[in-house]
Amino acid sequence: MPQDAQGRPTTQAVEDYVKAIYHLGGAEQPVSTTALADWLHISPAGTSHMLRQLAQLGLVDHTPYYGVRLTETGNRAALEVIRHHRLAEQFLVQVLGYAWDEVHEDAERLEHAMSERLEERIADKLGNPAADPHGDPIPTLAGQVPASAERRLADLPAGVSALVRRVSDRDPAKLRYLAELGLTPGAEVTILARGPFREPLRLRVGAEERTISLDLAAELTVDPLSRIAS
Fold first, then answer.
1. Chain-wide mean pLDDT for the chain?
2. Bridge partners of 69?
3. What are the angstrom distances between the C-alpha of 19 and each of 43, 55, 59, 136, 220?
4. Which of 61, 92, 157, 163 could form a disulfide with 98 if both were Cys (CB 3.0 to 4.6 A apart)?
5. Is residue 41 pLDDT above 80, yes or no?
6. pTM for this structure?
7. Are the CB atoms for 132 and 138 separated by under 8 Å?
8. Burial class (CB in 10 A: 0-12, 13-18, 19+), 225
9. Which top CATH class is 12-70?
């Protein structure tokens, strides 16, 4: 992990911030203070104060009223935290028998306590997995994340089939509901019909027909089968 000017390890709060900025797209484009505050459930004033500290540490470029972006150092820090988190989730499911909707909060705690030695041992124990239980890619030790041409299920037209690749892990209740519908990573889904004015999508999941809202479909990342075949 990066260190401050005195060589001290960054704090849990710093790690939470750089990870949140990354998830909001801050490696490529500015993220607003309001969006970051909403993501972290912290006041905009408190967020602005923390962003000034991150800028002093060289982790972000922050322009008031314009937004914040991760520096190269900040991006590496975010990817290391994300690697810890996703390895922890996979370990909890694969080794300790957690359900996929149970792991997020414990992984949030473990990501900050994981030493480099423990990270290496966990990765070796799991066979150096490429993804966590929700399909999210695990960054490599070098801080690389595979490029992806995946799309949101909500954006596919009727008649297209796809494989579910990733599911948001932030809401355990949604994860349990998606599991009941069979919408887990690796599942094949076909858009049977979509109506106007944000009407729900009608799907085929395996041999079953399902109906889900556009908002829920937007949280599912898929890989169209036509692209895979080509």
1. 90
2. 61
3. 18, 15, 11, 14, 20
4. 92
5. yes
6. 0.85
7. yes
8. middle
9. mainly alpha
